[in-house]
């Protein structure tokens, strides 16, 4: 079994064969993947070495100390945090061999075609249809998706579509990998409160998907999607950050750098939020350690719920702390960014963008239900539509 000493030796070998100072970024990332040092817990040949997940931190630290380039989670976060775990858990050998490496190196960006205009919080009510072509075995997809981050830069998408409208809504769904360069895929920007168009709506017209790009069994898409959703909430709410990193770091820096803005009341709120941020950081670290035992559970929903509340509270405090300067907003130009930047922009941007944290990745209301039922064991809310065929539901 691979241990820490073996991994350190592999890191030294990688650095010797591909010196960071003279190796291009993409070439280094490809070599790192091939050496099994991308995701050490993945199988050999798929970026890993079948090692304990907990050993990844040592690999990352050793490479960072040597100045080695890393991939860009801000740009490819959907691929890393959502698509990759699902491909690994439910994809065929061919699918995993084809997609995981360029996903990890960032050569191929991924997006998530889940939410629809009539199926956001109630995702299982989605109506995008996938119909099997009897002659070729391919699937023909028609429908509309919305709130799709990175659709304007993505090469591939994870897609949920309804394949049997005669079954109840959770049971007639199938999960696919969709080619975003297909001529039937149309991406339109959705301008947000911040002025930019980070999200998109996507129209699918006669999109042909080979059956080889199906993940899981036909009609079993909801079970596959739960893998994606559980990992999504962990990747959003449990991201690894340093102490006093992220949003609380910006607010604390204002407090230190602008003594003329300080008041006793704001100081007390800052201290409370600093403690909350540290608790969230440590809880996220514990959650990541628990992932070594397998797929994330409902605890990730609690992390994502807390993340949204904390981001909104900290960004509100920063705006209040800055007084009149907190109302300034640097640029309303309509752009289509490749990533969300919570720390490199001004306080006005952070305040506005944080409003979306309680919607994206599962609304706070839905996550409260998950925590209540699956963590606290409270009785579920009545659901009259669970056993009704999807085609008979009121829409």
Automatic annotation (TrEMBL):
Record-annotated Acyl-CoA oxidase/dehydrogenase middle domain positions: 111-197
UniProt keyword annotations, A-Z: FAD, Flavoprotein, Oxidoreductase
Family per similarity comment: Belongs to the acyl-CoA dehydrogenase family.
Sections of the chain in a coiled coil: none
InterPro entries: Acyl-CoA_Oxase/DH_mid-dom, Acyl-CoA_Oxase/DH_mid-dom_sf, AcylCo_DH-like_C, AcylCo_DH/oxidase_C, AcylCoA_DH/ox_N_sf, AcylCoA_DH/oxidase_NM_dom_sf, Mycobact_Acyl-CoA_DH
PANTHER family: ACYL-COA DEHYDROGENASE (PTHR43292), ACYL-COA DEHYDROGENASE FADE34 (PTHR43292:SF4)
Organism: Streptomyces termitum
Matching Gene3D superfamilies: Acyl-CoA dehydrogenase/oxidase, N-terminal domain (1.10.540.10), Butyryl-CoA Dehydrogenase, subunit A, domain 2 (2.40.110.10), Butyryl-CoA Dehydrogenase, subunit A, domain 3 (1.20.140.10)
UniProt domain Acyl-CoA dehydrogenase/oxidase C-terminal: residue ranges: 219-376
Cofactor: FAD
Protein name: Acyl-CoA dehydrogenase
Gene Ontology MF annotations: flavin adenine dinucleotide binding; oxidoreductase activity, acting on the CH-CH group of donors
């Amino acid at each position: 079994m691979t241990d820490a000493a073996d991994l350190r030796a592999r890191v030294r070998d990688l650095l010797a064969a591909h010196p960071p100072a003279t190796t291009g970024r993409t070439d280094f990332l490809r070599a790192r993947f091939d050496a099994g040092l991308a995701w050490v817990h993945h199988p050999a040949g798929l970026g890993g070495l079948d090692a304990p997940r907990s050993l990844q931190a040592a690999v990352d630290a050793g490479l960072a100390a040597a100045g080695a380039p890393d991939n860009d989670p801000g740009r490819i976060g959907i691929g890393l945090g959502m698509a990759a775990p699902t491909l690994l858990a439910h994809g065929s050998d061919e699918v995993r061999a084809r997609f995981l490496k360029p996903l990890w190196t960032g050569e191929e960006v991924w997006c998530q075609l889940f939410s629809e205009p009539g199926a956001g919080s109630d995702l299982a009510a989605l109506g995008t249809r996938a119909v099997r072509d009897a002659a070729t075995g391919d699937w023909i997809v028609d429908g509309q998706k919305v709130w799709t981050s990175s659709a304007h830069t993505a090469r591939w998408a994870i897609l949920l579509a309804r394949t049997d409208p005669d079954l109840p809504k959770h049971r007639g769904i199938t999960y696919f990998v969709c080619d975003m360069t297909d001529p039937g895929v149309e991406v339109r920007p959705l301008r947000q409160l911040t002025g930019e168009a980070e999200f998109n709506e996507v129209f699918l017209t006669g999109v042909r998907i080979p059956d080889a790009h199906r993940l899981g069994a036909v009609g079993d898409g909801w079970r596959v999607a739960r893998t994606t959703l559980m990992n999504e909430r962990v990747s959003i709410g449990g991201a690894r950050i340093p102490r006093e990193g992220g949003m609380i770091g910006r607010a604390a820096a204002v407090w230190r750098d602008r003594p003329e803005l300080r008041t006793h009341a704001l100081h007390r709120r800052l201290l409370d939020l600093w403690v909350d941020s540290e608790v969230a950081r440590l809880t996220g670290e514990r959650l990541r350690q628990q992932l070594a035992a397998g797929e994330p559970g409902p605890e990730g929903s609690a992390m994502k719920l807390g993340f949204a509340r904390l981001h909104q509270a900290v960004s509100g405090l920063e705006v209040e702390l800055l007084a009149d300067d907190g109302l300034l907003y640097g640029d309303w130009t309509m752009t289509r960014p490749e990533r969300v930047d919570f720390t490199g922009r001004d306080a006005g941007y952070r305040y506005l963008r944080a409003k979306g944290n309680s919607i994206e990745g599962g609304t706070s209301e839905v996550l409260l239900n998950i925590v209540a039922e699956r963590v606290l064991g409270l009785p579920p809310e009545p659901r009259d539509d669970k056993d009704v065929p999807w085609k008979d539901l009121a829409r």
